[in-house]
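Go through this:
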Amino acid sequence: TPVVGADFDVVAELSLASDVTSGTVNLSGSLNGLNVLNVDQDLCTANDISLPLNAGDLYWPDACGSAGDMTVDVKANLKLSASYSLTLKSDGVFCIETSFAV
């Protein structure tokens, strides 16, 4: 269970049909139903993303890989007690949707 101010992971197990060497991922999210995040991120570059309203941070890992099974582990540290919704989408590669409360 996510806790305010503590790191937690949003983990997805994927099976890639072919090698993924480039692309973009759109990270979108809401806080208590208010859209607060809509960022396009290089799929293959790790990056820290600060959420607006001092709501916290996300860490996007390098998500490129060879065909076969892989794990995408997005780390989050959220500063506000709220209901969150997060969508991670890369056309033709994956779409991950999750909702949780902190």
Remarks:
- The radius of gyration is 13 Å.
- The mean pLDDT is 90.
